[in-house]
Design a protein that fits this description.
Length: 250
């Protein structure tokens, strides 16, 4: 199953309606159908408890955190894909999910509402906690974080009401649908057909995700090495080394 996590009830409303989710009996607000589980986690570290509960109750294949966020300059309604999430001195790197509307950016999770936006990143109050918690149960490559900008220096936070948030969140539905329909949401054709290494379908998907992340961190990366390596172990080791270097220089 796919888990969608949101922090607030008003963030959940458009998805409950769109995917015809029904609430189940649980310690947290949880809604589901045959394919999806949506959980309302709350904010801050408390949200980790809800994620642990969901993974303990259901068989989960992938995890998507969505919600509102703030940024210094980006227009309200801008959709972003968070490829790096920081909280204090800790960081995780979810799978980058790109489309024509989703812009890659760093996310910082904070303990109090951010109204000065000192860095060129988006801010929320639960993203790191829920994605970190999910990473204890599934691969980080199966975790995606998408946000919609709700406030900036010009607007402040005065306009953030429950109906406003619900309306903003509905704009993420077209970005979620390809994932929920089990279509490929990545760059799609990064694995060359004439590789020397034989890969299973699962391994090809994993390889594409790693390459997608590498290109997001380092857009000028040369992928010609893919056609020269004949050992599967060496192939993935090489990519992981390139990813490590790219993260250090990002």
């Amino acid at each position: 199953m796919i888990v969608i996590s949101v922090a607030l009830d008003c963030e959940a409303k458009p998805f409950i309606k769109e995917y015809k989710l029904e609430r189940i009996k649980a310690p947290f607000p949880i809604y589901k159908n045959d394919l999806l589980v949506l959980v309302v986690t709350g904010i801050k570290s408390y949200s980790m408890t809800a994620i642990g509960y969901v993974f303990g109750k259901f068989s989960i294949s992938s995890f998507i955190n969505i919600g509102i966020c703030g940024h210094k300059e980006k227009e309200v309604g801008t959709l972003v894909a968070c490829h790096k999430i920081e909280c204090d001195d800790n960081a995780i790197y979810p799978s980058p999910y790109l489309s024509s509307k989703l812009k890659p950016i760093q996310l910082k999770t904070v303990e109090t509402v951010e109204t000065t936006y000192p860095d060129d990143c988006v801010y929320d109050m639960e993203g790191y906690y829920v994605c970190f918690s999910a990473s204890k149960f599934i691969s980080i490559d199966q975790i995606i974080c998408m946000k919609v900008v709700s406030d900036n220096l010009h607007t402040g936070i005065k306009q953030i009401t429950k109906p406003f948030v619900t309306s903003l969140m509905s704009t993420l539905i077209p970005e979620l649908n390809p994932l929920i329909e089990k279509k490929d949401g990545g760059l799609g054709e990064l694995v060359p057909p004439n590789m020397k290494v034989r890969l299973s379908t699962t391994e090809k998907i994993l390889l594409e995700k790693k390459l997608e992340k590498l290109l997001l961190l380092q857009s000028d990366s040369d992928l010609n090495f893919l056609e020269t390596i004949s050992c599967k172990h060496l192939l993935f080791k090489t990519i992981d080394q390139k990813l490590d270097r790219a993260r250090l220089s990002f």
